[in-house]
Amino acid sequence: MAQANPASTLANIYRTPELWEKIVFTFICLVIYRVGSHVTAPGVDVVAMMDFFQSQGGGGFLGLYDLFVGGNMSKATIFALGIMPYISASIFAQIAGAVFPAWEKMQKDEEGRKKITQWTRYGTVALALVQAWGFALFTESVQGAVASPGAYFKFEMAWILTTGAMFVMWLGEQITERGLGNGASLMIFFSIVERFWPSGIQTFKFIGTGSISVLGLVALVALMLGVVAGVVAITLAARRIAIQIPQRTMARGRMREAARNFIPLRINSSGVMPIIFAQSLIVVPGAVAQFSGNERLRDFSDLFVPGTWLYFVLSAVLILFFTYFYTSIIFNPVDIAENLKKQGGFIPGIKPGAKTAEYIDEVVSRITLPGAIFLTIMALLPVWIADVMAVPFQFGGTSVLIVVGVALDTIAQMNQHLLLRKYDGFMKKGRVRFRGRQTSGDIFSGG
Question: Dihedrals φ, ψ of 56, to 5°?
Fold first, then answer.
């Protein structure tokens, strides 16, 4: 892949006014988001909350949620819910389109999409209220975290966190409309990236204390680079299906056929959603046991602790299942076949219509398997590294998937702006073209 000159590319960005303005606006919004991430909600002892999360080892659903919101939950800030209520509402709206035909019809109409967007905002408010109330109850359950527990604290916390979630949603929408890239995606991206630097410093402290050797650190860095390279390769990997659209033009009295095109089918079209669904189910027994206080339930939940054989087997099965399930929801071969037929296009050797849909569905089913295996490895990799190399921390494969996906999307949009001005982008060859318009619900699927 031939690379463009970075200095020349940066100069081209500065010489493109609309692109530069989008970058500056996006940066200001993200700074506001990160400033709010350091404002603690009233009545909460941050030290007690952070001690509790550290005692949990950063695992489970709470650790995953805290990763997506940039540590706001463990620090009990006014943005403790982050962008996640909006993401959840958007995902529900996306799934509803695959379940209810009337909803799917609305998704194809401009006015219908506006209504869905409005309903998604209402759903965000409802989810934020429920999650804020649950977080208030959870905060009271942490020993020493709340000085004056009671009804007033719960209502105050629920009001503050819901308001914070609404403001974060508004910031994300502003970035999407007036800035560069998808606002929700970028918020999670910077929430994850922000924690890389402190984690790096902590890693070198482990060398000083002897928790990890220099040779082990070198091997770990090499493994991490290999993982990042693999994530990039799988994220960009796509199975291209050749199609022909017989658009004919007159050239000196002769009919000339249009050039051949391709339908790119991504190997990992479900993104990190299968990992999130699987981990959410696995932590349910532990969460129920923790709040119930039943000893038998606690013994049962110990079977699903990360590192046990049952945890590995169940995680692999759930990730494989949810990969196929979520792919079937977000990908509709029938729509592709119908749109192709309306344009007069066809796949060589395949009849238009139902046969084309069956062929595309068969190809998607075959390429989904390696994508599912890849997601399984990425989800279990942190636990394997911690056990085999005896390191006192975990390297998150989920965070790498998100960071790489959002980075590639943002670079692709910047390249599009530069190409409109006939400037060289970040990559002269092999441009990232498989991603199109992205909605707020597509953040984890990358579509």
Answer: -80, -10
